[in-house]
Design brief:
19 strands; 24% strand
Length: 447
Amino acid sequence: MSTSASSSGAQRWWAAYALLPSGVARDVTFEVAGGRFTAVRPESSPGDAQVLPGVVLPGFANAHSHVFHRALRGRTHDGGGTFWTWRERMYAVAAQLDPDSYLALATATYAEMALAGITTVGEFHYLHHAPGGVSYDDPNAMGEALRQAAANAGVRLTLLDTCYVAGGLDATGHSPLDETQVRFGDGDAAGWAERVAGLAESDGMRVGAAIHSVRAVPRDQLGVVARAAEGRPLHVHLSEQPAENDSCQGFYDMTPTVLLDVEGVLGPRTTVVHATHLTDADIATLGSTGTTVCFCPTTERDLADGIGPARLLRDAGSPLSLGSDQHAVIDLFEEARALEMHERLDSLQRGRFRPGELLSAATRHESLGWDDAGRLEGGARADLVAVRLDSPRTAGSTPCQILMSATAADVDTVVVDGRTVVTGGQHLLGDVGSLLQKAIHPLWESS
């Protein structure tokens, strides 16, 4: 599919339906120059514009990714177990990756995300060094592999470089990194900040920061990370498991939320991930500080984490975002739909989130530092996701409720910053399934 372009380099697309900030619009022309929308005009004729099928949505923002977890899909269900036993297999995969294999796996996984309509990904990146904790010649070689992978796949990246100092926490205090975790660490938060200072932003990548969790970063180092991240996105895993709450309460005599608050971590540039097991006071604190909460429903149910208080958090003042986390599923339609469905199971009520609220959560690029993305309007980054309305899943759906019926398989066309990355459901890199197979199979050959 070729995009219509004038001699001036401007591009034009047209769609019968589009979800604009004002709601569903018909017969919409999108004019693009320099990777941005210069005009979005409803009630227009196609003219010589490229016609897109179905309904056009803004590009999705995957606010929480551990890209190497994609190698675990379909391989962790045979023995039951818990989050903690699942983590053992995750560590086994992590131990085998180097910059080359990381690049191959990340390229294929980010391409799978593009096929699903994801135009920005927030990578919660803690796989920093070689096994044994030895630094590569380039201390940021693994992060640079992610930068190249995102460029290959045609998506934007926010590298949430993660501080990971301790191996765990119980009522007696923090434990040291174990033999697998040692490649995640930089000695302390100051060492982490020094390494991260060597990362440069580029047109396709923002550099953010992350605190792995209150288990992995002791109290006296939380503020170091927060100060180093000033002005940039800062993400942190929060209260995913009751065991985290119990250990934090036992050692620090406060909940993880309170600990993050008193150490200056929370605020409008901060996103907490999961936030599954919260007290009423925790919810009020997160809301009053304007902290974004990222839910990852397909992961939270896959790992039997529980159902978090999404509606209560939103009502308290916390914006919501969505992520695919461990990539048991890469489908932001499903994540958005599950946000509502989990609320229904918990509350016994339907309609806890309106379709517009779900779309807002699925397109919250602001939490990744891309404040000019996620909206179909003039001046915004030219991201488009055309979703078919005639598939076996979407046939008969109204455009305004497409999030409740479509899946990633219904994405036809994806444009990122004015560049067409997916056409007719095919990625510009070709057979993404083959790329994934080639990247993942070697990681399990010895198992």
